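ARCHIVE CARD
CATEGORY: sequence design from structure
SOURCE FIELD: tokenized fold
FIELD CONTENT:
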């Protein structure tokens, strides 16, 4: 879930002002309070996550869920290129030192979520204690320690200046702030999109019923004809359909069907559009709060969370006309 580095070459000063206005407003936008586990958490892991989230005062169930999503997308067989293993992505040495036999079957199994999820909670509590005297946000320092090691957090006096670690911390905090306790249309739009996290990008893919095979070809020649998934506007079309709002198919058409939203009025479920003018809208995502969106970015990626400025040409935020009637 790495974000692309924003590039501003060739972008007009007018568009850059728009970007700055929305990002500045989003910087102080509270993402929300973690009340209940987000709908994106697989049912088979909810009990384990709820229990692990009570290991110590520094963790909660949504934080554990966010970590597991960030680490493995809840895949208990995941293996990273660096050799991290299982749903919580423990390195072998870290597992040897901190893994526990939580289910009491006589073995500590990094591949078993019944051991790995409680171990993740325990390890978060351990590193939280190790960096308790480091300045800055205690939760951010704890998460950064899980990713980059407590020694690096101590060395830099907070979250290290590593792009990967900074994105890691922000992603988990954003996921952790989601909850399934609300019934407002905007919340249900976000929840519908969250249920598609991890689905592959497919050019032309996605409709009101869900992921579908796409078409050929994207501007870069990529075909979605053999991929069941979503492109950016297919995802937004699907999420809005889940709350009874019918959107047109393309990002540009969805922009035309939306009312503009001022930077200070943006709310979860609004659509974030990218381009340099009304006629060049090329991408759309769903705002989730705190300066973040859910979107299907491009061929070769999956539906994921991204910072709002994942592309430098944020053009506008819109609210489809019918949303105001619900």
């Amino acid at each position: 879930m790495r974000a692309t580095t924003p590039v501003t070459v060739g972008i007009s000063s007018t568009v850059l002002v728009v970007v700055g206005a929305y990002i500045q407003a989003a910087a102080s936008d509270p993402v929300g309070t973690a009340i209940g586990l987000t709908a994106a958490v697989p049912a088979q892991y909810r009990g384990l996550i709820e229990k692990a989230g009570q290991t110590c005062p520094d963790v909660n169930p949504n934080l554990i869920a966010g970590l597991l999503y960030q680490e493995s997308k809840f895949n208990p067989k995941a293996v990273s290129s660096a050799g991290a293993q299982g749903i919580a992505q423990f390195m072998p040495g870290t597992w040897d030192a901190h893994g526990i036999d939580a289910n009491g079957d006589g073995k500590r199994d990094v591949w078993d979520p019944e051991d790995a999820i409680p171990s993740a909670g325990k390890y978060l509590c351990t590193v939280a204690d190790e960096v308790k005297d480091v300045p800055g946000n205690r939760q951010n320092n704890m998460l950064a320690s899980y990713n980059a090691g407590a020694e690096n957090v101590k060395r830099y006096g907070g979250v290290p200046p590593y792009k990967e670690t900074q994105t890691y911390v922000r992603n988990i905090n954003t996921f952790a702030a989601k909850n399934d306790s609300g019934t407002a249309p905007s919340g249900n739009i976000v929840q519908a999109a969250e249920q598609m996290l991890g689905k592959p990008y497919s050019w032309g893919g996605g409709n009101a019923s869900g992921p579908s095979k796409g078409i050929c070809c994207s501007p870069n020649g990529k075909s979605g004809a053999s991929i069941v998934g979503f492109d950016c506007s297919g995802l937004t079309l699907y999420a809005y359909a889940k709350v009874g709002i019918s959107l047109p198919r393309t990002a540009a058409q969805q922009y035309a069907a939306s009312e503009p939203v001022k930077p200070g009025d943006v709310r979860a479920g609004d659509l974030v559009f990218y381009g340099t003018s009304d006629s060049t809208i090329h991408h759309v995502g769903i705002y989730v709060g705190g300066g973040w969106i859910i979107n299907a970015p491009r061929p070769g990626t999956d539906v994921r969370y991204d910072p709002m400025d994942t592309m430098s040409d944020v053009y506008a935020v819109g609210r489809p006309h019918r949303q105001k009637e619900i």
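CARD ANNOTATION: Confidence is low (pLDDT under 50) at residues 1-17, 30-35, 180-184. The CA atoms of residues 14 and 228 lie 37 Å apart.
SHELF: design records, drawer C
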